[in-house]
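Before the break, one more example. Copy the sequence into your notebook; we will annotate it together after we see the structure.
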Amino acid sequence: HVEDTLIAGAGLCDRHAVEFVASNARSCVQWLIDQGVLFDTQVQPNGEESYHLTREGGHSHRRILHAADATGKEVETTLVSQAQSHP
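Here is what the structure looks like once it is written out:
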């Protein structure tokens, strides 16, 4: 993930910042899931459900979680709802 980001950044990225973001991404995504963000899932051939990962420009592997074509809206509405329920 770090190398993909550095390549896509075309020399504009600070390696330490990229490493920090990449190393904390999994826990941040888990926090979003814990808040109720509903990312798309799929059923595997063995019957198990897993997150549907996509591969976007600049990525060498499938690692992008999404909520249909409205991921930002899903994240925003979930976090706004959480904030409103804890005044």
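The chain has a mean pLDDT of 94. The CA atoms of residues 12 and 41 lie 34 Å apart. Try to locate both features in your own notes.
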